[in-house]
Amino acid sequence: MSKTSTELSEDIEVIGPGKMLAEARMAMGLSQQQVAEQLNFRPALVEKIEQEIFDSKLPDTFNRGYLKNYAKLVGVDEHDVLASYEMLGVAAKQRTELQSFSKITEKEAQHSRLMWLSYFILAALIASTVIYYLQDASNDSSTSSIAPVSDSQTNTSSQSSDVAKTQSGNAGVTDVAGVSDSSQELISPAQAATIASQASQTSQAQPELNATSTLAAPVQETLPANIEPNERVQVTATDAEVAQIPATAVFSFAGDCWVNIYDGTGERIAWGIKKAGYVMQLKGTAPFKVTVGKPELVAIDFNGESIDMSKYNVGNIAKFSLPESS
């Protein structure tokens, strides 16, 4: 449904319905208490009407009815009062839009300051990186001048260590030879034959072990590190991730009836008194929260399905949601 609103220029002063009614009441010499008694209103309600404080929770039809009755009592044209009431809502909407515009301007200014701060931090990081590389290059040049001296010392020390290792190795070979000779002198012929047979068995078992380890290695390599299941886990979406579905509702009125309807986003999409024979089609986000003054005068089709209205009491206000909970 398209929504139209009248824009007010800044130099036009809106006279609210409460001020009009209060001036007419004082011109007639009536007090708020007297008005409340004649209209069967609460004194607090009369005071709120004159202060233009309307309960947003009530349907707009009730506020209009209060204004009409008050206007008739004090002799003010009810059309002028209702027109002032409508313009009061337009002015409030424009004030809200101006406030939102000022908030957007403040956010843009904050974003601009944050952007400049980010640029400053980035420039500081680049400067520190350049300084670090320049210092590193100067350290490398000083280290390269000292390197030849340290290389010569390293070569000298390595040569001396090689000579020492050679001497110790020769001594070790001599010691091993002496031990082997002495062991040959102490071992008898029978012990020598036993040692030879054990050595041959060990040499025969060694190739078998090598072959077994060679065969076992590929098997271990072919085994996967992690075994993944063949079945895939299907992840279902949670209720918060389920997108809201648009819905269509058609209301057919057999008589005058007031309605008040909100969609699933909390926006009021229809309200007021609907005349007999009027067919109203609504599109929005489900669920719809519906309040109907006379359910026996309304026929409803929701997404192509007819809604049973006979279960609601005749002449009583009906409140329900579409789609209806099963």
Automatic annotation (TrEMBL):
Membrane spanning stretches: 114-134
HTH cro/C1-type domain boundaries: 21-51
Keyword set includes rRNA-binding: no
CDD domains assigned to the protein according to its UniProt record, in alphabetical order: HTH_XRE (cd00093)
Organism expressing this protein natively: Thalassotalea euphylliae
UniProt xrefs under PROSITE patterns: HTH_CROC1
Designated name of the protein: DUF4115 domain-containing protein
PANTHER family referenced in this protein's UniProt entry, alphabetically: CYTOSKELETON PROTEIN RODZ, PTHR34475
Region (Disordered): 143-175
